[in-house]
Amino acid sequence: MPTVVLMDVSLSMTRPVSLEGSEEFQRKNLAVHGLTMLFEHMAANYRLEFTALVAFSSLWELSVPFTRDYNALQEALSNLEDYDKTCIEAALNGVSNIVQQEWGSACPCQVVLVTDGSLGIGKGSLRHSLQTLKHRGDDKKFPLPFPFPAKMFILCVANAEELQSTDAMNNLEELLRINGGDGQIFTMEGPLCLKSVQGMFGRLIDQAYSPFHAVLHCGNLSSDVQVFPRPEPVVVDEEVEPMPRTVSTDLEIMGFIEIGDIASPPVISRHLVLPIAVSKEVDEVGTGTTDEPEEEASASQMAGKSPNFCVLLHGSLKVEGMVALVQLGSDWFGMLYSQADSKKKSNLMMSIFDPGPEPLPWLGKISQLGPISEAAENPYGEDDSKSPFPVQPQIKRSYAQNVTVWIKASGLQTDVQKILRNARKLPEKTQTFYKELNRLRKAALAFGFWELLKGVAELLERECTLLPDSAHPDAAFQLSHAAQQLKLASTGDCQYSAFGHNIVPMHTDFSS
Q1: How far does Cα 275 stand from its chain's mean position?
Q2: What b/e sequence results for 70-94 when a residue is b if at least 16 CB atoms lie within 10 Å of its CB, and e otherwise?
Q3: Which of 6, 120, 261, 311 is the most exposed place for a label (fewest CB within 10 A)?
Q4: What is the per-residue pLDDT across 175-185, written as a single tens digit (0 to 9) for each?
Q5: Residue 381: CB partners within 8 Å, gap ≥ 6?
């Protein structure tokens, strides 16, 4: 989950802060101190995540593009210059542009806005931006909500009392609400000093950047692992009293299955699984490595020479083309698999399924899966020519039937034209005409589309009046009969609009 740090470099950030001692501090110095603390933490615990630094005042500038080099980020912090007034809207537009250009609109991102709570003055200020939200055209839309999943954390180099004395706190809370409410506002507790800013950034780290340590078990083998980004709690809406469910710190591998059988399952989120201790020889295999040699070397130096089950698992899954089903909690599962970043590098990834005993319908209940050795015969066949999946349900699902769906107007027009074409070929196409007519009738009744039935009835009556003199007399009778039945169904009378009822051809005898 990449991070964009928005650093306010407006003039209000240069306001002095009274600290004990002769050295003079500005609010900007406190912000730089807090961000340095954050970058040092990420360099030690989130070294595989990408971070970008954006400086803004009335305009915005990408100081450091997305990188894993936290030394470059800290160096850029120390070289930030001071500019003019604050314009948060322009900065948010900049975030939207650089994230979409680098990651697209599907990758979740974290935005860390560091400011002093000053909202700017006049046009371009946050007050003005929020007041004009409802009076904007499509060409000047407010950048929030972001076009990609995003959490926003606002860190104010000010205490809550200072923000509440103005409308700053209300406007910043409105900013979070517009973005979907996913995020938090942090303020300094107590006087403005280094200790207070450390406490504020410490709370941000605990909230969003605390590492997730777990133990991966497989039979008698186990390995300490770290999961990136930290799995978020999940709330199941179907429950009577929904409670957030969290991923357990004990991850139990239940078994292994071929990639072809797992296909492309729906998942809640994807995470990188990194072994906490890897050796130099093992690190070169590619588990949890990056495309930066300096970082590989540092990871190798941190680790010892002990074997690691996590690396063995990754190599096995990669070679055999399989995935491991892992239990994340009670009736909650996911899968571990190898994903290649490039031709030479690959990572051990974990995808989290929806909570429940049957997250993938074609596999059935995961708790009922078992090893091949316990089956009476190999379900894959002797030459892997067959597969036991997908599991066929005992009851045929309703969505497996042929149903009529009108997503676009062209689909409805095609069905009506098909009925009219068959109507012009009566009586030769009598059976096909009534088959298509009943299909449209059932769909219209299912959708409550009474006007359609009445409209088609009028079309059939019109076709009846346009029949040529050479037409078979049965055609006029069938068209009039079908039109009358559709009109009766359009009234909603249960006697004629029963869903299971079919319009049958009118019985006529022209044999003589």
Answers
A1: 26
A2: bebbbebbeebeebebbbbbbbbbb
A3: 261
A4: 999 998 889 99
A5: none
